[in-house]
Amino acid sequence: MVRALEELFPDDPENLLNPGTRSAAVHLDPDDCRQWLGALNDLRLVMASWLDITDDEDFDELMDLDQDDPRALLVATYGWLTTMQDTLVEAMMRSL
């Protein structure tokens, strides 16, 4: 996953940390999709453990955190990873 993202900006990998500077698309074959789904799932599981998320209600409650709460960025990242995972599953289902 990291390798595929680094390949988007081979001459300037710091742009991965500043997404507002460029846009790019990652094209995945079926094997890549399965690997990405596994990685996204693993990242989400780790974050869920850190945040004590065991179900959707836990996540929904955390979405109401004040932006100054130190967990707010982690909650937003968890939500973004969830969206990426859902989007990838939907794309795989459409390609069947």
TrEMBL record:
Question: What's a Pfam family in this record?
Answer: DUF2017
Q: Which domain of life is it from?
A: Bacteria
How is this protein named in the record? DUF2017 domain-containing protein
